[in-house]
Amino acid sequence: MATLTTEMAAAPREAQSARFAALRRREQWRYLFLLAPALVFLTAFYGYPVASMLMRAFYDPSWGGQNFAPLVEASSTVEVLGLSLPMNVYLRVFWITLQIALVTTVCTLLLGYPVAYALSSISPGRANLLMMLVLIPFWTSILVRSYAWMVLLGQEGIINEALTAAGAIENPIRLLNTRFAVYLGMVHILLPFMILPLYAVMRGIDRNLMRAAGNLGAPPAAVFRRIFLPLSLPGIAAGCLLVFILSLGFYITPQLLGGQRDVMVSMLIQQQVDLLKWGFGSALALVLLVLALVIYLVFTRLLGVERVFGSARA
């Protein structure tokens, strides 16, 4: 009798589990149908063109890895951390790109962190009003902003004229077509990309933790260093990753503001395409893509960027 009762109780549970599984499968198919138009569009107009372009690295002008050979042929040396390493001109361009991207990321972090901290410390209404000032640059073309820096940094620009009028310099100094101009333009353009993830994480930090630490006698510097800064690390990681990846592929700003020694990989790819060397240009693009993916994986493993994305999904 007890066995029969157990079987009768188990039967409804099994039927309910089967119905629940059927509903889950039906819901998954519904989501798939909703995503299908976007997936088809992205595959046809983005995935396929990019994949076909990257495949040129292996078959243009003939099948093989000849397009990657110039990248491994050492023709000169470069000083890296006090060591003389063999490096050809193409790898030197990759090294310059990494340098520019790293310095730009550090500068945007140093400038954006205080701004995000201030925005997260005030009322939401005032923060939203001030956030408009951060978002205004998004409404202006990168090309227009780069040309504006050309006007400001030129030998007859506002900065040189102001310094000359103030008596700080006698002759105009060279500001345009320098590495400094590249840093200035890229930091100005990419600064909002650092502030936004920092602000999103800082706004979610419970300020009662800092007040409690202050009530227990901790000085403000120690409260910031031991409580607020560790809790804001996911935002720092996400902002640094976003700015660094975007910096790797920058083209317009370095082209307009930089000099002959500030050639980045994107400019080199464009040069190869102009010379109709599609295979070598695709090889450079593929190496840059792999480099960006490796950097992304390192960030997600070591700095916990996935926590930011996970909180956003939650």
Give a concise summary.
With 314 residues, the chain is mainly α.
Q: Could you explain how this protein is built, in words?
A:
By secondary structure, the protein is mainly alpha-helical. It has two domains: 1-52; 66-313, Orthogonal Bundle (MetI-like fold), CATH 1.10.3720. Helix content is 76%, strand content 3%. A two-stranded antiparallel sheet has the order 1-2. β1 and β2 (83-87) form a beta hairpin. The radius of gyration is 27 Å and the shape is flat. The mean pLDDT is 83.
Labels describing this entry:
314 residues; MetI-like fold; 14 helices; 76% helix
β-sheet strand percentage: under 5%
Number of strands: 2
CA radius of gyration is: 27 Å
By CATH, the topology of the largest domain is MetI-like fold
CATH class membership of the largest domain: Mainly Alpha
The number of helical segments is 14
CATH architectural designation of the largest domain? Orthogonal Bundle
Kindly report the name of the CATH homologous superfamily of the largest domain: MetI-like
